[in-house]
Queue: 3 jobs
Job 1
Amino acid sequence: MNIGVFTTAGGGGGIFQEYINKYSKNLALIELNCPPTIENLKKLKQNDCTAMIYISDHQENDNFFRTIAEQGIKYICCCSAGYEFLNLTAMKKYGIKGANVPEYSPNAISEHTVMLLLALIRKLRTQLLRIEKNNFKRNGLQGKEVRNMKIGIVGAGRIGYTTLQCLSGFKPKKMYVYDHHENAKVKQYAEYVPLDVLYKESDVIIYHCSFNEDNYHMVNADTISVMKDNVILINVARGPLFNMEAVLTGIKTKKIGALGIDVIEGEGILRNQKNNGECPLPILEEILKYENVIFTSHTAYYTDEAIRNISATTVENLYSYASTDNCQHEVVK
């Protein structure tokens, strides 16, 4: 089975080749040095591809997936846990099966989360900016300690649970979680509460939930208004969870005391831009003017362990499709 991978998917085919070689009798990787536009999708058929590795920062319309089907693609495997960019209705309509990588390294994202929290409460960005200018004064740099804080986590799946484990070592005053499904293991570390209670009680709110149409912009002017003054917000989940205009207002008014984000709505433009020294996302450029904001370029997951697991599972999914026409990580029901 020939597998098409556009160079915009996870950096291209390089990370998958080692695992493809394991199944060289069954799988061949075809690297396409271009983005997956409607016109470029024709390259899939030209290379006799019946599967593709695909990831995107937005969901394409029905016509995009119809075109993929017309090129002979039967399987789409995305190299991520989130698959909101897959138009499942269109895929089912045109007979395209699809799979994701449900777990690759919860530790990677959890450790990044803790890093952001510690950096924010110890004003690390301000310190680094001052030191670059040979300013070694300590005024305004007084920090806080995790043990004196109440922490709320929205989404207590694998990643949220791992973050609870990591933070428990700091012995915070209290930890709350909000999730539709309760887990006995989570209760060892935190108390399940309604979302409005979590918002009212937490000094720090961390987002580990998946993104769907129901929680689009769940952080907005109304929800921010019920949070504590000087609340610290951390988003290492999905950008569209936050209405960034409302968050910017919260930063300006000091309702939000600090912000750590690894993701931001519209971030695809950041990776597709030419490196000309300018920020192509106006809201990001504006919010980074504030030293109590830390942005990392969707790298929370990006560790050696995670990449190995992503690559291996993606290829296992493809091999399963090639061998049996089925996959245990199927997302198109």
Job 2
Amino acid sequence: MDNEFKNKVIVVTGAAGNLGRALAVAFAQRGARIALLDLNEQTTQAVVDDLPQDADATAYAVNLLEAASVNQTLQAIVHDFGHIDVLANIAGGFTMGPLIQDTGDRDWEFMMNLNARSIFYTCRAAIPNMLANGGGRIINVSARAAVEGKGRMGPYCASKAAVKTLTESLAAENKFDNINVNCILPGTIDTPQNRDAMPDANFSNWVPPEALADVVVFLASEAARCVTGAAIPVYGKS
């Protein structure tokens, strides 16, 4: 593998999930220094333990829905690694729901908090360090649902649309400071959970986590130096 990311500090949220794990492997193979964040330190440490022995990776427990937890964790990363070059906001989730008129406040807030508020917190905490360091890259995970709203998925679709629009606002605010901000729009991801939920589907049409990780790595790379404010579909055949 190339060593473009050698000594680059990469922060990955949702690191214990399927895409987070794939991204950790991809960056480790490229010599990056990686801060892996998730709610549970043990499961996040398991991701670190599965990486090659020479990988420079550290696990951090964080509650992305609490501003103080996010701020403290990113401060710890800057203390431990010196700075932040790339923030990959992989954490998020999906739930089906009832019709909007039957949707409770808790269901709405859960999706908006998990998918949108978490990214607001991490970006707010990371950007000052990137500005001080002369630049950086932020890659968020939105979804096809951000541009194709579906019934009984209102809170999820709205939260992912918020991610896309927030990405565009961040890109506009930071484009003259060498901070590129983009998001990806995954189709159906080929995960064990999705296979269990949709056992009759054609899994070969779905998007492997490794393919999504490749796009995130590209957006973090020098090759994407002129790409900012983009929402990139990664649908595969799904």
Job 3
Amino acid sequence: MNTEQELKNVVKERYARIAQQGKAGNVASCCGATTSSNKVYNIMMDDYTGTGGYVEDADLGLGCGLPTQFAKIEKGDTVIDLGSGAGNDSFVARHETGPEGKVIGIDFTPEMVQKARANAEKLGYNNVEFREGDIDNMPVNDDVADVMVSNCVLNLVPDKQKVIGEIFRVLKPGGHFSISDIVLVGNLPDALRKDAQMYAGCVAGAIQKEAYLQYIKDAGFQQVVLQKEKPITIPEDILGKYLSDQEIADFNKGETGIFSITVYAEKQGNKAHKPKVERAELQNREACCTPSSGCC
């Protein structure tokens, strides 16, 4: 498991299976890729309860934050969700951008794309689409998105600098992103760092926090802000699959830390003015565009 393509194949194969798993098993493991913990229910994800646009059927429990909460999405925005999975964050973004906006979800696992499309069709959302493709080579033209969001996905991509460069390319001048991801402070034990399950589990593929933030600045982004940070604790019954009791004790008392961070940054330029849409017109659109109306 040395080459970039081999790592991608591992992730694609794992997430094809994860697409068919239940949420309970995913949140009690590392991104659904490792065995589940018997001690901790929720290892990484944040609680979506009460979040506007939340769709339970689209929530596979694979996130490590709530990037849409911090993304400053406005009505009429075009939003791109990187690593969109079954569509949950895309649907939350759709709630914020409204029917006059547009949401594009990108995922390279066909099973996830199929699941997300089925959810969108069931909900009757005509302004949400899902595209199959790599986020380090997005199937999107330049200067398309007002906002980009992503939830615990960049750590799964071998070339993170390339992804960040793609984000810069696809954002409009004046656009911005809010991304939740896993980063490290200090070095992981070799047994964790080299394990395929831990890579697909959003841990072994994570990079140093300072390097992550520096990549964003080097790409040309400005106003880089750490919006949220929380430590991630891997339960001992999962660590025990990889480490001895002494190694677990050393790991837990050492200087190494695994963190979920949510980062905001802007692409320089003036954001294009969106034409105003009258409230009455919006209400008429909502009334028309229902799953049963058949008029859209």
